[in-house]
Design a protein that fits this description.
- The protein is 43% helix and 13% strand.
- It is α/β, with parallel strands linked by helices.
- It has 3 domains: 6-199, 3-Layer(aba) Sandwich (Rossmann fold), CATH 3.40.50.720; 209-291, Orthogonal Bundle (N-(1-d-carboxylethyl)-l-norvaline Dehydrogenase, domain 2), CATH 1.10.1040.10; 299-433, NAD(P)-binding Rossmann-like Domain (Rossmann fold).
- Strand 10, helix 14 (360-366) and strand 11 form a beta-alpha-beta unit.
- The structure holds uridine-5'-diphosphate-glucuronic acid.
- The site of uridine-5'-diphosphate-glucuronic acid has 21 residues, from helix 9.
- It catalyses: UDP-alpha-D-glucose + 2 NAD(+) + H2O = UDP-alpha-D-glucuronate + 2 NADH + 3 H(+).
Length: 438
C-alpha cells in the first residue's frame, strides 16, 4: 500500500486537521471530511480555524501541493484505502460519560462508500468497548472493510511535532492484516525508530485514557502537596524540584497551580469513571473523583486568596486577569481554569478585565459579559490586584517595576508558579503563589 495509499480523515477539528496535514506532508493524498461548511471552506483556503504553532504553514503548504483537500461530501472517501475517524467525543450534557453521537454517525456516514479491503481507523478518545461494537456494526453494514483503533497523544501547542515524531505509536487491531496496513501508512514515522505497540482493541482504547488519567493524577498530586505546603508553611516549587530528581518520579507535569483544563484531561477522567462503573469496576477508579475534586479546588483557593487580600465583598475592585486559555501557545478556552476563575470573580461582583495573547475571541464567545483588554497595559491599568493564570512567555517577560506605575495596588497572585517571585518582590509587589508560603 505504502505511499500510493489514499487516506481520508473524518472530522477536521484539532486532531483531524493536524492529522490530515501531517499525513499529506508524508506524501499521501488526503481528503478531509467535515460536516461544518465554514470549517471546510477555511481549511480549503489553507487557513486554520484555531491557533496551533507551525500547523498554519504546514496546512497552507499541503493545500498548495494539491495532495490535501477538504469537503463536506462523504462520498469523497470512496477513493480512500484508510479512513481516520477524528471526530469529537465531548462530555455528554446529562452526566459524566462521553457522547459518542459523532463517532457513530461518522462511521455510519462512510460505510456506504468503503471499498473492498479498506480500513477504518478510530483516533477519537472513546470509552473502552466502543471499537469492538463499531467493528461489529461495520461487519453488518460494510463487511468488505475492517476497523482498528489508533489513539493519539498529541498535545495542543505541539500538535505537529507530536504527530510526526510521536513518542510511540499504538495500534489496536483484530488481525495481522490491519496491523500491516497501519505499518505501511506509518512507515516514515516507524523509520525514525518510533516504538510500535500492537494491542487488542480494548487495550488500545484504554492506553489513551490511562495515559491522560496518569497525567491528571500527577498534576493533582502536586496540587494536593501545594495545599499541604500552604498549611504547613512549605514551598511546593522546591518540593516538586526535589522529588523530580528521582527518575522514577520525574520532574515533568509537577507544576503546581490552578490545575488542568482543556478539551481532554477533565472530560477523559470523567468518562473513564463512568465507563468503569458500567463495567462493574467503579471502585478501581474512585481515586479519579478525588483527582477531579483537587483540581477544581485549586480554582477556589485562588478566589479565597483574592478575598483575603481585598475583602469578602469584591464589588469595588478592579481585578486584572492575565491569561484566558487553558494553557499557553493555544487559543483553546475549553474548560479553562483561568477563564473559570475570571468568570467566578465577575459573578461575585468584581470588575474583571481579562487579557490573553490568543484567546480573547474564543473567551468572549463563551463569556460575552466579561471585559477584555487588547493589551496588558490596558488590562492592568488601575487594578487593585493582578491574577497571573496562564503562563504565556510574554507574561514572564513583563517588567514588574513598569507595571507598578500602572496599577492601583501592587498585589499579584501567580496561579501558575511561573513568575520570578524575587524580581516582583524587589519591585515592591506583594506576591502570592499557590503552594508557597508568603
Ligand atoms: C493532553 C495530553 O497531555 C496529551 O498527551 C493528549 O494527547 C491530549 O490531552 C488529548 O487527549 O488529546 P493537552 O490537553 O494539549 O494534552 O494539554 P496538557 O499539556 O496535557 O495540559 C493539560 C492541562 O494541565 C493544562 O491546563 C495545563 O496548564 C495543566 N498542567 C500541565 C498543569 O497544571 N501542571 C503541569 O505540570 C502540567
Amino acid at each position: 500500500m505504502a505511499m500510493n495509499a489514499n487516506l481520508s480523515v473524518i472530522g477536521c477539528g484539532y486532531l483531524g486537521a493536524t492529522h490530515a496535514a501531517c499525513m499529506s506532508s508524508l506524501g499521501f493524498t488526503v481528503v478531509g471530511v467535515d460536516t461544518d461548511p465554514e470549517k471546510v471552506a477555511m481549511l480549503s483556503r489553507g487557513e486554520l480555524p484555531f491557533y496551533e504553532p507551525g500547523l498554519d504553514t504546514l496546512l497552507a503548504q499541503e493545500i498548495k501541493s494539491g495532495r490535501l483537500t477538504f469537503t463536506t461530501d462523504f462520498s469523497a472517501v470512496a477513493e480512500s484505502d484508510v479512513h481516520f475517524v477524528c471526530v469529537g467525543t465531548p462530555q455528554s450534557k446529562d452526566g459524566l460519560a462521553a457522547d459518542l453521537t459523532y463517532v457513530k454517525s461518522a462511521v455510519a456516514a462512510i460505510a456506504p462508500y468503503l471499498k473492498d479491503g479498506s480500513l477504518v481507523v478510530g483516533k477519537s478518545t472513546v470509552p473502552v468497548g466502543t471499537a469492538q461494537s463499531l467493528r461489529k456494526q461495520l461487519a453488518e453494514s460494510a463487511p468488505q472493510a475492517d476497523l482498528a483503533w489508533n489513539p493519539e497523544f498529541l498535545r495542543e501547542g505541539f500538535a505537529v511535532e507530536d504527530t510526526l515524531t510521536p513518542n510511540r505509536l499504538v495500534v489496536g487491531v483484530a488481525n495481522d492484516r490491519a496491523e500491516e496496513i497501519l505499518k505501511d501508512v506509518y512507515a516514515p514515522i516507524i523509520a525514525l525508530g518510533t516504538p510500535w505497540i500492537r494491542a487488542d482493541l480494548p487495550t488500545a482504547e484504554l492506553v489513551k485514557v490511562a495515559a491522560n488519567s496518569f497525567l491528571a493524577t500527577k498534576i493533582s498530586f502536586i496540587n494536593a502537596m501545594a495545599e499541604v505546603c500552604e498549611a504547613a508553611g512549605g514551598d511546593v516549587t522546591v518540593l516538586a524540584n526535589a522529588i523530580g530528581y528521582d527518575p522514577r518520579i520525574g520532574s515533568r507535569f509537577l507544576q503546581a497551580g490552578i490545575g488542568f483544563g482543556g478539551g481532554c484531561l477533565p472530560k477523559d477522567i470523567r468518562a473513564f469513571m463512568a465507563r468503569a462503573e458500567e463495567l462493574g469496576a467503579k471502585q478501581a477508579l474512585e481515586f479519579l473523583r478525588e483527582i477531579d475534586a483537587i483540581n477544581l479546588r485549586a480554582r477556589q483557593r485562588v478566589i479565597d486568596v483574592v478575598r483575603s487580600d481585598l475583602s469578602e465583598n469584591l464589588t469595588p475592585y478592579k481585578l486584572a486577569v492575565l491569561g484566558a486559555t487553558f494553557k499557553p501557545d493555544s487559543d483553546d478556552v475549553r474548560d479553562s481554569p483561568a477563564l473559570d476563575i475570571a468568570a467566578q470573580l465577575h459573578a461575585a461582583g468584581a470588575h474583571v478585565v481579562v487579557h490573553d495573547p490568543k484567546g480573547i475571541e474564543p473567551a468572549r464567545k463563551r463569556f460575552p459579559n466579561l471585559n477584555f483588554a487588547e493589551t496588558v497595559t490596558e488590562c492592568v491599568k488601575g487594578a487593585d490586584l493582578i491574577l497571573h493564570l496562564t503562563e504565556w512567555s510574554e507574561y514572564r517577560a513583563l517588567d514588574p517595576s513598569e507595571l507598578g506605575h500602572l496599577v492601583k495596588n501592587k498585589i499579584i497572585i501567580d496561579g501558575r508558579n511561573a513568575l520570578d517571585r524575587e524580581l516582583w518582590r524587589r519591585a515592591g509587589w506583594k506576591f502570592h503563589a499557590l503552594g508557597r508560603t508568603d
